[in-house]
Amino acid sequence: MQGKIIKGIAGFYYVYGEDEVLYECKAKGIFRKDNQKPLVGDNVEITILDQQEQTGNLIRILPRKNSLIRPAVANVDQAFVIFALENPKPNFMLLDRFLIMMEQAEVPAVICFNKKDLASEEETRTLCEIYRNCGYQVILSSALEKEGLDKIVVNTLKLDCKEPDHTDWMNMIDKNSHLSKEVNIALVGKYVELHDSYLSVNEALKHGGLDHDAHVNIDWVDSESITEENVAERLKNADGILVPGGFGTRGIEGKIAAAKYARENKVPYLGICLGLQIAIIEFARNVLGLKDANTTEIDPNTENPVIYLMPDQHNVTDMGGTMRLGAYPCMLDEGSKAYKAYGKQLISERHRHRYEVNNDYRDLLEKNGMHICGLSPDKHIVEMVELKDHPWFVASQAHPEFKSRPTKPHPLFSGLIGAALDYRESK
């Protein structure tokens, strides 16, 4: 049958069929095969199946791609909607298998967990638009406040609270609605296909933009696609580069190439956790001339382990919650860019790592322009580094994104955005 699909929030889609019944769907498939954009529109051919039908004829024909039902109308995409709620015990493994087979057959699909007749099409569109566009404002929904939700929560938790003062939050919302500048930040990582993998970093960048009256455009760069040959072309539009945390070998060389590009071209750079280690490896290879410099996480046999396993981790076999986790203090050099950003010498940041800068290379790094600007109070662990001859090349072993807030942007993210705006204006 013909129907309409309306994109909601949090991954939900609302499907209206000819019977005017609203199907609320949690989408896992439902993509156009050409550009991977959500299949949304008013002219969609919809097939609604219950689980019994799905386990019968449909599964048998799925492997035969040419046998799948195709739209009868030109430029109409086929959407299969699986409606499983009527079965009290849906077979989710089978439904997941269905979606995988549909993906292989290049046919969009979605699992529908709920069917209801609660809202008109126009009401659904309006609601979706409100929630999609309101951003931070939804947290202070006047309807929720009028219904006294805040008081219910406070009373239930038996909290002794003052009357709420939303002044700072409302000022932030107003500011967010009237940003006059924009800046492009390349986020170079290996999980970029799923943006939520870097959700805290994404939000912290927005907070940094708020601090400078700037809308932040994030360019999601797959580090696996970056090489020495194409890095300049791929990052030429970046006003700043951020390399976030991560584990494992995949995409490492692309991140190193991005750090080198930022260093040589004076593009503002912020490295987070692995991003600091990447900066050290790149500098050691291309400035110190240690061509095989690496982290022992990637190459245990490297002759120049500039990043190595922390001594207290050598005998650890359980790799779960044994890392250096939680908040740790750091002492900043008063002459550093990091100190200027924080405005104080003693800071505390949250950590999640097992590898660190090898202290055997600290003097060599310092002598050649890599400033060790932040150390643990006992001066044993390198916490932050920056380049002496660069407008903003700063990296932290911690995860500063976790402490950033819309009304209190983190100093490192604000610093990156400020430097990126300066770089943009200088181009």
What's the short story on this structure?
The protein contains 13 helices and 18 strands. The N and C termini lie far apart (54 Å).
Report on this model:
The protein has 13 helices and 18 strands. With 427 residues, it is an alpha/beta fold. The protein has a 9-stranded mixed beta sheet with strand order 8-7-9-10-18-17-16-13-14, sandwiched between helices. Strands 1-2-3-6-5-4 form a 6-stranded mixed β-barrel. Helix 7 links the parallel strand 7 and strand 8. The termini are far apart. 36% of the residues are buried.
SSE inventory with pairings:
Layout: E1 2-7, E2 12-16, E3 22-26, E4 41-50, H1 51-61, E5 78-83, H2 92-104, E6 109-116, H3 121-133, H4 142-146, H5 149-156, H6 167-176, E7 181-189, H7 199-210, E8 214-222, H8 231-234, E9 240-243, H9 252-264, E10 269-272, H10 274-286, E11 294-295, E12 305-309, E13 324-332, H11 337-342, E14 346-353, E15 355-357, H12 362-367, E16 370-375, E17 382-387, E18 393-396, H13 411-426
Parallel strand pairs: 4-5, 5-6, 7-8, 7-9, 9-10, 10-18, 11-12
Antiparallel strand pairs: 1-2, 1-4, 2-3, 3-6, 12-15, 13-14, 13-16, 16-17, 17-18
Helix pairs in contact: 1-2, 7-13, 9-10
